[in-house]
Write a structure and sequence with these properties.
Elements (H helix, E strand, L loop, with lengths): L2 H23 L14 H10 L3 H11 L7 H13 L3 H12 L6 H18 L2 H11 L6 H14 L3 H13 L6 H17 L3 H14 L4 H13 L3 H14 L4 H12 L4 H12 L3 H13 L6 H13 L1 H9 L14 H23 L5 E3 L5 E2 L15 E3 L7
Antiparallel strand pairs: 1-2, 1-3
Helix pairs in contact: 1-2, 1-4, 2-3, 4-5, 4-6, 5-6, 6-7, 7-8, 8-9, 9-10, 10-11, 10-12, 11-12, 12-13, 13-14, 14-16, 15-17, 16-17, 17-18
Length: about 400
């Protein structure tokens, strides 16, 4: 039997015993009263030990009487099952509570909230939504229920409803930060752009900027609107502004920026980006890896930056230098400076090309909250549902 199951059994039995002692024997009684415990509790423990949790749960539910003294035992056991991911058992406990006609109103409300949390954990969002709407009418549980409901609407991509709930929470001073509602507005603006409602999208983005400033996502979307309007100059300006606010977007947005610039202005744009990042090694590295992913390492403005990043990164430096051993003069002399420069450039180009091929299939981004990694960029982490948590992350396997 696993240690975790033993722990659960011990906690469950302890909680149940305490509940029974409190409810039936009183805290002032002496220890001999323990002998009065119902023998079926031992049977329940035996079911746990022999890994028959469903039979154990049936036994415990039958024996607990949901009195005011033992009600918290039900909630503790249900919460324990939910945290372990055994959601079906948690649901049974809370449904068992709600089936009791004599359950006090405050305990019924608590059971409804617990059951809604069970449904959320199980991914049954429609069922959770109905219960949370019901619980949100209870003043003492309103903020908790609304925040959970906001999560449901996020999961269903019902952005207007999520925004409405966020605003209700704001009136209660219980809302998440303003950038969350700004993202809801950007999601609505994205839908408006897709259906061609550019004026509606602009209005939504202006509203987003009142919720959070600076807010680079609004700049990216405004750039897309300007591009659709045929104003590539404005689109470039807006996108460069967004990249200044959020340098982490360079891997995602560099191809878009260069497409707006066109072939005739590509090098001047790259030169400007290099100038912006020269004093920040991390930003320079992001720019170089974005250029590698986009197949731009041959661009003249980037050559020195690529060499600087390769020389400053221990792994890249070893790979780059290992490719140069065979380039010495076969007579034992050293190549002259011009030849050495050409060789170095060739080596960097080769390694950069190989890394670019790896990046094409690598996990480029990672959530800094939960560690979820993927090839695509998300404003909203698919795993932990955090906003603005994705950062460039290239898993490059060399050798």
């Amino acid at each position: 039997m696993s240690d975790s199951l033993l722990l659960i059994g011990a906690v469950a039995i302890a909680a149940l015993v305490i509940g029974i002692l409190a409810g039936h024997f009183g805290w002032g009684r002496r220890w001999p009263s323990l002998s009065k415990l119902h023998p079926d509790y031992l049977a329940g423990l035996d079911y746990l030990v022999t890994e028959q949790p469903d039979r154990a749960l049936d036994m415990f539910l039958k024996l607990m009487d949901a009195s005011a003294d033992t009600i918290e035992t039900h909630f503790s056991l249900g919460s324990l099952y939910r945290r372990r991911g055994e959601v079906e058992r948690a649901i049974r406990i809370h449904q068992n509570l709600l089936a009791r006609e004599a359950l006090a109103p405050e305990h019924r409300e608590q059971a409804l909230m617990a059951l809604a949390q069970d449904y959320l954990r199980a991914g049954l969002l429609d069922r959770a939504e109905g219960l949370l709407l019901q619980v949100s009418e209870v003043p003492r549980l309103r903020a908790t229920a609304l925040d959970a409901l906001r999560g449901v609407y996020e999961g269903q991509r019902e952005w207007q409803q999520a925004l409405d709930v966020h605003r209700a929470l704001s009136r209660m001073r219980a809302a998440p930060p303003g950038f969350v509602s700004a993202h809801y507005l950007c999601e609505l603006a994205t839908s408006a752009i897709e259906r061609g409602d550019l004026d509606g999208a602009r209005r939504l983005l202006r509203e987003a900027l009142t919720e959070a400033t600076p807010f680079p996502r609004a700049g990216v979307l405004n750039s897309q609107i300007a591009e659709r309007d045929g104003d590539s100059e404005l689109a470039m300006r807006l996108l460069r502004g967004a990249l200044l606010e959020a340098p982490n977007l360079i891997l995602e947005e560099l191809p878009h920026l260069l497409r707006l610039a066109g072939a005739e202005r590509r090098d001047s744009v790259l030169q400007g980006l290099v100038a912006q990042t020269t004093r920040d090694p991390d930003q320079l590295k992001r720019l170089v890896f974005a250029a590698i992913a986009a197949g731009l390492t041959d661009a003249p403005p980037l050559r020195a930056a690529v060499e600087q990043v390769f020389a400053g990164d221990a792994t890249l430096r070893v790979v780059w230098q290992s490719g140069r051993h065979g380039d010495a003069n076969p007579q034992g002399g050293r190549a002259d400076n011009a030849v050495a420069s050409t060789v170095a450039g060739t080596d960097i180009g080769r390694v950069a090309h190989e890394i670019g091929a790896l990046l094409a299939n690598a996990e480029k981004y990672r959530c800094n909250e939960c560690g979820f990694a993927g090839r695509n960029f998300y404003w909203h982490c698919p795993a932990c549902h955090s906003w603005d948590s994705f950062e460039p992350y290239a898993v490059v396997k060399l050798g």
